[in-house]
Design brief:
Layout lengths: L1 H7 L4 E5 L5 H7 L5 H14 L9 E5 L10 H4 L2 H4 L8 E3 L8 H10 L5 E3 L11 H7 L5 E3 L10
Parallel strand pairs: 1-2, 3-4, 4-5
Helix pairs in contact: 6-7
């Protein structure tokens, strides 16, 4: 019912918090919420949207990084797992995630061709070897935030 109401209201984008890769870690952050229900609701909404190149509402995924869930981020950003539900993912902000490196950015760029904004501020392990492929693959990229990243000499 809520999905239909959101679609009928003309919502442009729905942001969904996926703060854990397992039902247990998700429930630890989002107390009372159940990851399988969230994923099922996303699937239902995707099926209900009108077909088209950019069906509305688009679905955005947000991850709030904390000490207790940071170990789940690689699995959450495994875009292949959520790509079916967010094929037009456009904004990713990995602000200050200590383990994100060029291999993660390379994986994102190969799976998120509609990416328009990527935030990598304070991702100290990003050195820049991925930038050429990022720009080549993500032709819609308009914003790239690189404040206090690792050495960007290879750009």
């Amino acid at each position: 019912k809520k999905s239909r109401e959101l679609i009928d209201a003309g919502l442009d984008t729905l942001w969904v918090s996926i703060d854990g890769a397992s039902p247990e870690s998700y429930a630890d952050v989002r107390m009372g919420a159940e990851l399988p229900n969230i994923v099922a609701n996303m699937k239902r909404l995707v099926k209900m949207r009108a077909p088209g190149h950019y069906p509305k509402p688009e679905i955005g995924v947000a991850f709030v990084a904390m000490k207790r869930n940071i170990k789940d981020l690689p699995e959450v950003i495994n875009i292949g797992k959520i790509k079916a539900h967010t094929p037009n993912l456009r904004v990713i902000n990995l602000y200050g995630i200590s383990f994100v490196d060029d291999t993660h950015i390379d994986m994102l760029s190969s799976n998120c061709i509609h990416l328009e904004s990527l935030g990598l501020n304070f991702c100290l392990k990003v050195k820049g070897s991925c930038m050429k492929s990022l720009v080549h693959r993500c032709r819609k990229l308009k914003t790239l935030l690189l404040q206090h990243c690792g050495s960007m000499l290879s750009c």
